[in-house]
Structure formats: C-alpha cells, structure tokens
C-alpha cells in the first residue's frame, strides 16, 4: 500500500469523524474502533486527534456543551475556597491633573484573570477568543475603582471587551475604559511640588471569603512609551495591596500610585519673570526727584495692580484651600517691596516739606529785621536833622552867629560866654518845645514805614522800638555839625531773632511810641 493510498484512507476517516461529531442524536451506525500502528507518521496522528485545530463546528460544540449547565449567577467553586483573581493594568494615557477639582483622568486597559473549571474543554488545545456578547453569559468579578468619580467603557465601534478561554478553564477578561479618579493634591510647595495620584481597585460585593484580588506580578502596571502628562513629568509608579474592613466584611484592595512632578517652565514665563520685573520697576522711583509725585505714585500703584492681577489669575486656577502656598508667599513678598517703595516716598516728602517752612521762616526773618532797623534809623536821623535846624535857628536869633571853629571859641569874651550859657538854657527849652512836632512827625513817619513794609509777614502793624540817640558835634558859623549818633537799636542787633520779633510785636499792638532823644552839645571854652 503506497503513500497515496494511506492519505486517501486518512481523509476518508477524517470525514467520517467529522460527520459523527456533527450528529446531535445517537448514531445509528456502529462505532468502529481501530488503532494505528506506532510506525504511522505524526502528521497522520494529528489529523486523527485534531488537538491543534478547531473549526466552527468544534467551537460551537464546545460552547454549547459548557454553557448548557453553566449558571452565571454563581461564582466559580461556589461554597469552596475563594477564587484568586489577578489584575494587571496597561496605561495608555493620562489626560490631565486638575488642581481645582482635585482629580485626574486616565485611560487604560484593565485585565482580570481567574479560573472557572466549569468552562474547561478538551476538544482542542487552542485558546478561544470571544467577543463582548459573552459578557452577559459568563461570570465576571465585580471589581470597581474606589476613588473613581466617573468612568465609562469605550464603545466605538463596539464595546471594548474581550474574553479568552483556556482549555483548563482559565478566563482572561479585558476591558478598555476611561475613569476620572480623585487625587488629593498637596499644594503647599506649589508650583514646585511633586504629587502622587493613586488608583484603588476593589471587589464591590465579594469579600475575601469569595474573591482574593492580587496583582498579576511585579510588573502588573505597564505604561505606554512616551507618556505625556500636561504640565507634569512622569516619575514612576508603585503598587501595593491591603485588606480593608467594613461592616459587611473584609475586602482586598489593590493600590497603584503614579508619581509626577510639576513643570516650572510655564510658571517662570507667566508668574515669576513678570513679578520680578514689576518689583524692580517700582524701585526706579528711588532715583527720581522727590517732587516728581505724579511719576512716583503712578509707578507704585501700577506695580501693585500688576501683582494683584497676577495673584488673582493664579487663584482662579487653584482650589480654595486653607493652606498657604509657596506662590502666595512669593507674591506677598513682592507686594511688600513695592509697598516699601511707596512708603519711602511718603517718608521723604514728610521730611522735606516739614522742614521747608522753618527754613523759609528763618531766611525771611533776618531780612525783615534788617530792613526795619535801617528804615527806622533813616526816619530818626531825618527827625533829628529837622530838630537841629530849629535849634540852630533859635540859637542864631538869640546869640548871633557861632564861631567857625573851636579855636575861635577860646577867643570869645566873658560876656559872650555868659550870653552863650543863657542861650544854652533857652535852647534847652526850645528843644523840648520843638520835640512835640518832632514826635508827631515821627509817628506819621512810623505809619508810612508800616505801609511800606506791608508786603512782609507779621508787619501789618509795626512800631519803632524805644531807643535813645546821643548826638555829639560842634558849632560853626551857620550850623551844628554832627559827629556821632548813638542809638539803642544798635544794641538790639545782637539779640536773638525770636526775642527781637517778640519785643517788636509787644511794642506794636495799639501803642503810640515817642522816641526819646538826648542831644549833647560839646563846646570847648
């Protein structure tokens, strides 16, 4: 028998085997039992056994057989030992980490593996891959995410679910989903902070007496290559597990933590550099003139407004929490420096403008005193000259012309000396009489002096001080020549400015003053 004959016989037997496997009822034909010799090639044996091949009829027969007695409501090994369920996660993306909502969004593939002996089959050694429609016909663990706020299973174009059945009854269930999980952020070092966001997986209804969750291995968390998180840099992940206790029992919880670090580059451009430049801009007022009030105040207020705007912009991006953040301290320090620049301007203005009136008063007080003194002396000298002219006229009327020089006076006779003495006595009386018009003229001149000095402060009512003038001179043929005039006002020059003004004001309020003059005429015999 050649090889062709053997192949034909094998094909015929295979067709008979397939026909027998597809028959539902009892076979009316008798069963034949035959064995191939050990010298039969391995290819021929595989054709007869068909362990590495499966067609639609074989798979359909397997599913019909295992599901005919399968109860989806009961867990595997019900009433016996708990079912071990291993979990693994493949992270495809982390979209964002929100500081305001304190959460993050993650898209991943969640794989759960357990063994269900009710689904074991022996017809083939191949694994059977089933679609999402088997989800309603097979038992699956009731795992959920403890810190999840919202989640959904992707359904484009169909629900992203898959089942893999192994001959020994092992089931591997995979699902693609996106969840928004809560993440408690520590913002004390914001924006130079590191955060750790966790994801917790736990069975909702089955306690550790029914299901024991565990990570598949140490590398149960797989991260896609080139994972990019907005505003963050991915550092690594850690996986742990713990048993938690509730009123209904104890549950096994799986925890994975993702470590991320915030990128500071965007905050350097948006916050740090603008605030630094604004603070330095406020220091420009130190080099401005103190009387440039408009420019200095504008720079200071503008700097404060810019810093306040940046601070409010940052607060809009952050939650309202009670802790003090690093960015708050930084902006507060910038505001403090800008405020000090404004405070420095106020202090300089206070020092300058509080000293100016005193300096101006001291400057104006001495010129007023000097002008008043010299104008007073001019009035007194004019009055004295008028009085001396009157005295001279009276003396000439009584005694005749006076000698031209003192030397001629020694040649005078005894009679002339007697007449001179008499004339001196009469001149003294004439002098007292002539002082009355002198006093009136002095008061009139005093009023004129007050009007001329009305432009000076505190001189609206100004009078002359009490002074005594001493006159020294000698007689000539026509007049008396004055030699020296002494006035009490010269002694007033050395007094303190405030005492001089006080004495002038005390003598000037509603009092009429008359200068007392003493005339001394010296004559050599």
TrEMBL record:
Entry-linked Gene3D superfamilies: Neurotransmitter-gated ion-channel ligand-binding domain (2.70.170.10), Neurotransmitter-gated ion-channel transmembrane domain (1.20.58.390)
Cellular compartments per GO CC: chloride channel complex; postsynaptic membrane; receptor complex
Biased amino acid composition, Low complexity: 433-449
Catalytically driven reaction(s): chloride(in) = chloride(out)
Family matches, as InterPro entries: GABAA/Glycine_rcpt, GABAAt_rcpt, Neur_chan_lig-bd, Neur_chan_lig-bd_sf, Neur_channel, Neuro-gated_channel_TM_sf, Neuro_actylchol_rec, Neurotrans-gated_channel_TM
Signal sequence, start to end: 1-21
Region called Disordered, residue ranges: 433-461, 491-525
Ranges of Acidic residues composition bias in the record: 492-502
Membrane topology: Multi-pass membrane protein
Stretches with biased composition (Polar residues): 451-461
Cellular compartments annotated: Postsynaptic cell membrane
UniProt entry keywords in alphabetical sequence: Cell membrane, Chloride, Chloride channel, Disulfide bond, Glycoprotein, Ion channel, Ion transport, Membrane, Postsynaptic cell membrane, Receptor, Signal, Synapse, Transmembrane, Transmembrane helix, Transport
Gene Ontology terms, MF aspect: GABA-A receptor activity; GABA-gated chloride ion channel activity
Entries under PROSITE patterns matching the protein: NEUROTR_ION_CHANNEL (PS00236)
Domain Neurotransmitter-gated ion-channel ligand-binding: 60-263
UniProt domain Neurotransmitter-gated ion-channel transmembrane: residue ranges: 271-375
Ranges annotated as spanning the membrane: 267-286, 293-310, 330-353
Purpose of the protein: Theta subunit of the heteropentameric ligand-gated chloride channel gated by gamma-aminobutyric acid (GABA), a major inhibitory neurotransmitter in the brain. GABA-gated chloride channels, also named GABA(A) receptors (GABAAR), consist of five subunits arranged around a central pore and contain GABA active binding site(s) located at the alpha and beta subunit interfaces. When activated by GABA, GABAARs selectively allow the flow of chloride anions across the cell membrane down their electrochemical gradient.
Family according to the record: Belongs to the ligand-gated ion channel (TC 1.A.9) family. Gamma-aminobutyric acid receptor (TC 1.A.9.5) subfamily. GABRQ sub-subfamily.
Oligomeric and partner information: Heteropentamer, formed by a combination of alpha (GABRA1-6), beta (GABRB1-3), gamma (GABRG1-3), delta (GABRD), epsilon (GABRE), rho (GABRR1-3), pi (GABRP) and theta (GABRQ) chains, each subunit exhibiting distinct physiological and pharmacological properties.
PANTHER family membership: NEUROTRANSMITTER GATED ION CHANNEL
Name the UniProt record assigns to this protein: Gamma-aminobutyric acid receptor subunit theta
């Amino acid at each position: 028998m050649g090889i062709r004959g053997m192949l034909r016989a094998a094909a015929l037997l295979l067709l008979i085997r397939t026909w027998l496997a597809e028959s539902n009822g009892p076979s009316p034909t008798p069963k034949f039992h035959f064995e191939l010799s050990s010298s039969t090639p391995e290819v021929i044996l595989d054709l007869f056994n068909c362990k590495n091949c499966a067609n639609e009829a074989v798979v359909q027969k397997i599913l019909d057989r295992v599901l005919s007695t399968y109860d989806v409501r009961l867990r595997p090994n019900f009433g016996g030992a708990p079912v071990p369920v291993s979990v693994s996660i493949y992270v495809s993306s982390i979209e964002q980490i929100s500081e305001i909502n304190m959460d993050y969004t993650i898209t991943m593939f969640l794989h759960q593996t357990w063994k269900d002996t009710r689904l074991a089959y022996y017809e083939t050694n191949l694994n059977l891959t089933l679609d999402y429609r088997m989800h309603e016909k097979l038992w699956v663990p009731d795992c959920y995410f403890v810190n999840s706020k919202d989640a959904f299973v992707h359904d484009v174009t169909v629900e992203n679910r898959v089942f893999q059945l192994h001959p020994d009854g092992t089931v591997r269930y995979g699902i693609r989903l996106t969840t928004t999980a809560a993440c408690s952020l520590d913002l004390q070092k914001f924006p130079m902070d590191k955060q750790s966001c966790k994801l917790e997986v736990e069975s909702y209804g089955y306690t550790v007496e029914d299901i024991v969750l565990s990570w598949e291995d140490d590398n149960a968390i797989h991260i896609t290559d080139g994972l990019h998180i907005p505003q963050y840099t991915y550092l690594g992940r850690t996986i742990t597990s713990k048993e938690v206790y509730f009123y209904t029992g104890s549950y096994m919880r799986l925890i994975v933590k993702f470590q991320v670090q915030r990128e500071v580059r965007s905050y350097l451009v948006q916050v740090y550099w603008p605030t630094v430049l604004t603070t330095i801009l406020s220091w420009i007022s130190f080099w401005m003139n103190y009387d440039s009030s408009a420019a200095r105040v504008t720079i200071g207020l503008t700097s404060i407004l810019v810093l306040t705007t940046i601070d409010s912009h940052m607060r809009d991006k952050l939650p309202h929490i009670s802790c003090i953040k690093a960015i708050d301290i930084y902006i507060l320090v910038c505001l403090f420096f800008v405020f000090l620049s404004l405070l420095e301007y106020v202090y300089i203005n206070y020092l300058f403008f509080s000293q100016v009136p005193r300096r101006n008063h001291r400057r104006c007080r001495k010129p007023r005193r000097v002008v008043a003194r010299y104008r007073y002396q001019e009035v007194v000298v004019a009055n004295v000259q008028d009085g001396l002219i009157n005295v001279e006229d009276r003396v000439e009327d009584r005694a005749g012309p006076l000698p031209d020089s003192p030397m001629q006076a020694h040649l005078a006779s005894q009679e002339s000396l007697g007449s001179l003495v008499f004339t001196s006595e009469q001149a003294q009386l004439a002098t007292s009489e002539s002082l009355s018009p002198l006093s009136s003229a002095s008061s009139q001149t005093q009023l004129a002096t007050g009007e001329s000095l009305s432009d000076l402060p505190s001189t609206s009512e100004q009078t002359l001080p009490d002074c005594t003038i001493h006159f020294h001179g000698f007689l000539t043929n026509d007049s008396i020549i004055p030699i020296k005039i002494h006035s009490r006002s010269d002694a007033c020059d050395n007094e303190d400015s405030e005492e001089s003004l006080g004495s002038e004001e005390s003598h000037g309020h509603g009092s009429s003053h008359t200068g007392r003059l003493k005339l001394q005429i010296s004559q050599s015999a």
